[in-house]
């Protein structure tokens, strides 16, 4: 079972499909759950720990908007753990402020630079595209299974 | 919320014959340690990880391709997310869920026909009943009732 980074990181469809095809999706919801259930961490904005800005600074300089670094602090464990990635373009709901937009660009850039198997596709608009969408994700997940079977 | 507790959302595709109330009833029948909340889109289930996953595996049997699952960070009714406490409006994450749930019938169809050849005909969609035809049915029914 491979840990697959999904983008958008909170996608219901991607999270479900990756789980269906036998792998572990790395989702933002898991990071959020950890944030809100850990002892000693309170409601926003008090749940920012001293470690978070350090994680954000790994990816973006100090003069970059703090929103980008804050978001990257949450996404850091997902990017670090990722063994493969599925990126879906044209996600209308990921539209947001400049912090969101720049983070989205940065995340895709970092994942592309990482030397891991990657699948990039667009959201389907009709039934036929949906079938291709599901099929591509299934084939990608199966190819990861076979990659794991090959001895090092 | 305990550290080993997780929350998952079950979202039904519009094309699914299953209703959220049916899912909720089945979840209550299975009666595990998980807490179940019925919503307009499906269910929110929270509890120990093993209990939640077992319950979801059972519920998925009702419609394997029409029930979609994702994890959720906040438990149901959490005051930081609950609309009742925050003064109404869409809760954070609603618009994303709304947008993706519109695509779920297509994805469900994709899952059903994943092995089918690419030139397969598109799925049959139910046409809406014509208003004039609906009026005729009402008139006929009323006449039958009057005539006894």
Descriptive account of the structure:
With 152 residues, chain A is an alpha/beta fold. Chain A has a single domain, classed as Rossmann fold (3-Layer(aba) Sandwich). In chain A, 53% of the residues lie in helices and 12% in strands. Chain A contains six helices and four strands. Chain A has helices at 12-20, 28-37, 51-57, 66-81, 98-113, 127-149, and strands at 3-7, 24-26, 84-89, 118-122. A four-stranded parallel β-sheet of chain A has the order 2-1-3-4, sandwiched between helices. In chain A, helix 3 (51-57) crosses helix 4 (66-81) and helix 4 (66-81) runs parallel beside helix 5. Chain B has 148 residues and is α+β, with helices and mostly antiparallel strands. Chain B has one domain (5-112): 2-Layer Sandwich (Alpha-Beta Plaits). Helices cover 43% and strands 17% of the residues of chain B. Chain B has helices at residues 20-30, 49-60, 83-86, 94-112, 131-147; strands at 5-12, 35-38, 42-48, 67-72. In chain B, strands 2-3-1-4 form a four-stranded antiparallel β-sheet. The longest helix of chain B has 19 residues, at 94-112. Chain B is extended. In chain B, 30% of the residues are buried. The model of chain B has no long low-confidence stretch (mean pLDDT 87).
